[in-house]
């Protein structure tokens, strides 16, 4: 067997990328010195490329297919199986790793997108609520029928507490502010009452003063269209009461 015939058996596997180890190194060294084998390698690579087009492109020349098959057939079967198996196994692992990488990347992007949307939705909802509250306050303050009620203590004392309620019957809106309120016992709270022209007092909000004795009630739930005669304040349990608990500590009529 000549030198060219010896290396010609490995050229087909080298053209397919399936030749490894010392055989590959020996062939590459031979190719550097042998123009004939280099031409044969280029022809085999061309034949392999044409053969790869059979599934999606024009049919390659029969000569190219025959040359590549004959060249591969000259290799011992045991050797081809031994060399090809690691190649296909490696390709399989690479494909699996690529799929996992894409899946993890998409999952991270999706998680970040969901977090961003949730954060923006919360900010939008908060701004919407604050805007609605400001609009309601402005409506009550500028309502044509808005009347103010100065609420004073029933009994006079030093630095007396005081309160002011602004009420709109048409919009069922109420803004109440108080100052110098006396601290409350444990589990107790102040309750504001709307005293209508007719009927029983209507609960208009629970509140506790801060460390400076100040407190505020904004837009409590009230029946629509109730005309107020006065507003009063009593001390009630923290959960509130349906009817005032005597005595009334503060009271004021419209003016």
What would your notes on this structure say?
By secondary structure, this protein is α+β, with helices and mostly antiparallel strands. It has five helices and eight strands; from the N terminus they run αααααββββββββ. The protein has helices at 3-15, 21-33, 35-52, 62-73, 77-141; strands at residues 147-153, 162-168, 173-179, 188-196, 202-207, 215-218, 228-237, 250-253. A hairpin with a 4-residue loop joins β2 and β3. α2 crosses α3 (35-52). The longest helix has 65 residues, at 77-141.
Q: Report the span from N to C terminus.
A: 123 Å
Helix content: 40-55%
Q: Give the strand tally.
A: 8
Write down the secondary-structure element order. Answer: HHHHHEEEEEEEE
How confident is the prediction overall: mean pLDDT?
79
Number of helices: 5
What percent of residues are in strands?
15-25%
Strand-pairing-aware structural class: alpha+beta
Present the secondary structure layout:
Blueprint (H helix, E strand, L loop, with lengths): L2 H13 L5 H13 L1 H18 L9 H12 L3 H65 L5 E7 L8 E7 L4 E7 L8 E9 L5 E6 L7 E4 L9 E10 L12 E4 L2
Antiparallel strand pairs: 1-2, 1-8, 2-3, 3-6, 4-5, 4-7, 7-8
Helix pairs in contact: 1-2, 1-3, 2-3, 3-4
Question: Summarize this, please?
Answer:
The chain has helices at residues 3-15, 21-33, 35-52, 62-73, 77-141; strands at 147-153, 162-168, 173-179, 188-196, 202-207, 215-218, 228-237, 250-253. The protein is an alpha+beta fold. A hairpin with an 8-residue loop joins strand 1 (147-153) and strand 2.
């Amino acid at each position: 067997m000549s030198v060219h015939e010896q290396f010609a058996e490995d050229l087909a596997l080298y053209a397919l990328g399936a030749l490894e180890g010392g055989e590959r190194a020996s062939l590459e060294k031979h190719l550097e010195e042998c123009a004939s084998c280099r031409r044969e390698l280029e022809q085999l690579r061309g034949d392999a490329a044409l053969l790869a087009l059979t599934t999606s492109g024009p049919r390659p020349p029969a000569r190219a297919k025959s040359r590549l098959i004959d060249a591969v057939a000259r290799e011992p079967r045991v050797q081809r199986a031994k060399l090809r198996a690691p190649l296909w196994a490696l390709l399989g692992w690479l494909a699996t790793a690529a799929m996992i990488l894409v899946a993890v990347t998409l999952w991270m992007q999706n998680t970040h997108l969901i977090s961003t949307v949730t954060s923006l939705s919360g900010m939008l909802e908060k701004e919407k609520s604050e805007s609605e509250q400001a609009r309601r306050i402005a409506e009550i303050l500028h309502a044509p029928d808005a009347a103010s009620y100065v609420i004073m203590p029933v009994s006079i004392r030093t630095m007396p507490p005081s309160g002011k309620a602004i009420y709109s019957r048409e919009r069922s809106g109420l803004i109440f502010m108080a100052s110098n309120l006396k601290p409350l016992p444990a589990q107790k709270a102040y309750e504001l009452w709307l005293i209508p022209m007719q009927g029983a007092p209507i609960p208009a909000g629970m509140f506790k003063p801060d460390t400076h004795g100040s407190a505020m009630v904004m837009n409590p739930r009230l029946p629509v269209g109730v005309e107020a005669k006065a507003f009063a304040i009593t001390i009630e349990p923290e959960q509130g009461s349906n009817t005032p608990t005597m005595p009334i500590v503060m009271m004021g009529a419209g003016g």
